[in-house]
Structure formats: C-alpha cells, structure tokens
Write a structure and sequence with these properties.
This protein is α/β, with parallel strands linked by helices and 475 residues long. It has 12 helices and 22 strands. It is 28% helix and 24% strand.
C-alpha cells in the first residue's frame, strides 16, 4: 500500500533550520502538500527533505536565509522534473501543473520567444533567402514607404477600440493588421489569440500591415509517428479513462459498478483508471456534500479487491468542481476528497490539466469549455465537417504549443505543450468523439465522451501498441 507521508509545520521548520534556512509559513504549506500528493510517493520524509535542501542550497543563490512560497514551489517543480527524467520509462508519473505567480501582463510574449527561436531555425530562414521582420523595424520606417515583409507574432483583437481592430504583436512592438477578400488563409481554422506567420505589405503612411497570407507554423518538436494500431494484442499498459461522472445519479453509480465488476474479473486487470469530473450533475454549493460523493466513489472502488489493491487511480477535477473560471484547476484537497483513505492502495489527486507519463508515453489531459471560447475568436473557418474541425484544433494547439491557443491572451506557462504530448485528451460537453484527429502524423487529439450523459461511454488506451478504443456499458 502506498503510504501517505505527513509532516507537521514544526517538524518542517526544525529540519530546515538545521541547514541555516528559515521557511515562511506559505513555503511550509507547499512542502506539506507535496508530501501528501506526490506520486509515486517518496520513500520517506527524510529522502524528500534532503532532496529539497540539496536543490535549494546548490542551485539557488538566496539573498537571505528566508525561503518564500515562490522559491519553495520552484524547488518542488525541479524535484518533479528530476523524478520524471530519472524514471525507468515504464513507471507511472503524474505531473501536476502549478499556476505561475509571476506578475506578467503579456504572458504570450514569453511563449512567443520560444516559438520564434524554433521558427528561425527553419531551413528557409537559415538560408537567408527569407527573413522575419521584427515589428519594430516596420513601425520605425520613414513615412510614405510600403515594404513587403514576413511577420511572426501574436494575433489578437483589441476590443477596447470602437471598430475592434486586429493587431499582430511580437516582442518588439505591435501593428494593426487588415485582412481582405484576397487574403489567403493557409489553415482551415484561424482564430485570434494565436501565433501566426503573416506574409504581406506594411504601409508606413497608414501604419498598417496588409495581409496577403496567414497561417500557422509547424510544431516545435517532431516526435515519432503515432501508429494507432488495429491490433488488440496487449503488450504495454491498459488505461481506462472515464469522464463526467455524476455521482449524485443512481443510474450512473450502477453503470460504474458494472464497469468495475467487469475489469476486476479481467486477466490482467487495467493498470490505471483516470476519473475525470465533473463529479456531480450541478455545481455543488455545499463542499461537505461533494466530499461525501467522493467518499462513496472510493467505497465503490474498494468493493473490488483486485483493482483497489493493484490498479492505480487518478482523480482529475472537472472545470466546475471547484471555484474559478480559468485553468489550471487545483487538485482536490482534504475538504473535497477523503485523502486519509486506506481503501485504495495507489491513488493520486491531479490538477486540471495534468501531464501523465506511462510507458514512455506522454498524455496531457484537460477538462474545460474549449469550443465555446474558441468560437468567440474564429476569424476564418473552412472546416467542412466535425472531423476536419478536430484536426484543425489539434494542429492549432500543436503549432502554438499551448492549450490556450485561440482562446485567450493569457498564456499561462503551466498550460504549455511546447514539448508536444503523444495524446492531448480533452473533455468538453460541446465536443464529441467525431473530432478525434491526428496532426502532423505524431500528435493526436482525443475527445472524451460523457459517461453520465452519453449512454455510459468511456475510453480505453493501450500504451504498446499505441491504441485506443471507445467502450460502453450497455443498458
């Protein structure tokens, strides 16, 4: 059984003060929370504290002995990265995301710098035959000049203007951009709040970039091709993903029991179950009631001896399971989940989104209202059907390297998918499985069905060969 490690505030202070450090109250809380939620668990408190102090002392040049919450979280992030890179490749690692505390107004510009560095390495720009024009070079031209140019930047609409002008911005400046009937859109789906490559002409007298063509670039890292095999011969791990599980609905609980009964009798049993919210049919105002529902879910799983002891479980909060209208969503706390339970041998409370590494596969899973936000920002849409739309979405996310692509000007660093996952898995009630699509031959978008609202459907993944199935509990 995986042992939950707990340490008192006084003990944290005592162990760190020996090394001449003094942790502020919020920094202590960061350490306590990581010990409880880390998965796989640390072998001991001593192992964790020693690693924390070693990284802090050797890698951080502290101006004083005081350690605040931000520094503590940076050390925790480094510990998580080391645990991932030092793993054997076939173990399960769950990497929760952490909201940045940096007070950066234009977070998308930091992300743009990374994407631009990759783009400049493209052979067409390395050859010097074509060059990217920094916007500052354009807006500082003499008046009454018109120049042909290629610009890479962040496309957005300034809604504070009466006519809601479009702008393109890079790290040197911004300029209004105009589309015409003759503008060629190189991709089927082009929204604002995304990074685009624009060919066109800049008119210095009008201080405007007139777009001849607009499109997305290729993603920053080219991984191996994803071969979704039709073979069901199981060699690697089996992962069962169930989303939108209304625990306040009796029929849902009955079907969930049927599903778990079947898997408990399998040989071999699934290696991992991922349960994704929302876990109630309507937002629960009373947090105690919500926790009781989660207790009932744990009790239900515990009835099945094999999977409760030998399988691993990840619980991901739905978008409306806790407060706030933006990602990331924090993992469930003791107020919302029975964290002291001994009924499950191995479980992890994940953030939303969460990055999961298993058998050298990287899965990024998120649950949020993607489509409704994307639709507000679409500039060009040539998608003829649902599958083409899904393909365009995964291309958009992959080329921009971020889950917020096309949605928002706030590019939170923890939502980056710059290192593109094998699978990007989304749950959104406005999306459906017909959107399952592959982009650039290596990254795959998979849309989770609603277990409670879509006839008790769910998805099953196999890590080797890479394969996924849609499954259903029949009436």
């Amino acid at each position: 059984m995986a042992r939950v490690l707990r340490i008192s505030r006084q003990e944290v202070l005592k162990r760190t003060q020996i090394s001449g450090l003094h942790l502020m109250s919020e920094a202590v809380s960061v350490i306590q929370n990581e010990l409880v939620t880390a998965f796989p668990p640390f072998a001991s408190i001593d192992e964790f504290i020693k690693l924390f102090i070693d990284i802090l002392v050797k890698d951080y040049k502290l101006n004083s002995i005081l350690v605040d919450k931000q520094i503590a979280q940076q050390v925790i992030d480094e510990i998580r990265e080391r645990r991932i890179t030092s793993g054997t490749g076939n173990e399960l690692v769950v990497k929760n995301v952490v909201k940045s505390e940096d007070n950066v107004k234009k977070t998308y510009l930091k992300h743009l710098s990374l994407l631009r560095q990759h783009l400049e390495k493209h052979p067409i720009f390395q050859s010097r035959e074509f060059t990217l024009s920094p916007i500052d070079n354009l807006i500082t031209l003499d008046k009454d000049l018109e120049v042909e140019c290629i610009v890479y930047g962040f496309l957005y609409k300034d809604k504070t203007k009466i006519d809601s002008e479009f702008y393109i911005e890079d790290n040197t400046g911004k300029v209004p951009i105009v589309f015409s009937e003759d503008t060629q859109f190189k991709d089927d789906l082009i929204p604002s709040n995304s990074f685009v490559l624009v060919e066109g002409s800049y008119d210095s007298a009008k201080d405007t970039l007139f777009a001849d063509s607009v499109g997305h670039t290729s993603p920053a890292n080219l991984q191996e091709n994803i071969d979704l095999s039709n073979s069901l011969e199981r060699v690697g791990r089996m992962v069962v993903v169930v989303s939108d599980i209304h625990l306040d609905d009796k029929q849902t609980l009955d079907k969930l029991k049927t599903m778990l009964t079947g898997y408990d009798s399998m040989v071999p049993i699934p290696d991992l179950f991922i349960f994704v919210g929302p876990f109630v049919s309507q937002t629960c105002q009373d947090i105690t009631i919500f926790k009781n529902h989660m207790k009932n879910l744990v009790k239900l799983i515990a009835k099945f001896n094999k999977i409760s002891r030998l399988s691993q479980f990840i619980f991901v909060p739905g978008f409306h399971d806790n407060e706030g209208n933006d990602l990331p969503k924090p993992a469930f706390t003791v107020d919302m989940f029975p964290t002291s339970t001994t009924k499950l041998a191995n479980y992890h409370l994940a953030t939303n989104p969460v990055n999961i590494y298993i058998d050298n596969r990287h899965i990024c899973l998120a649950a949020f209202p993607y489509m409704s936000r994307l639709e507000q920002n679409i500039i060009n849409d040539n998608c003829d059907d649902t599958q083409q739309l899904g393909s365009s979405i995964i291309k958009l996310i992959s080329s921009n390297g971020h889950l917020s692509s096309g949605l928002s000007r706030h590019y939170e660093s923890c939502l980056s998918v710059f290192h593109i996952p094998d699978f990007i898995i989304l749950f959104d009630s406005d999306m459906n499985e017909a959107m399952d699509s592959k982009a650039y031959d290596y990254s795959h978008l998979l849309v989770l069905p609603s277990f409670s609202s879509q006839q008790f459907k769910f998805k099953v993944f196999y890590t080797e060969p890479k394969h996924h199935d849609s499954s259903q509990i029949l009436s």
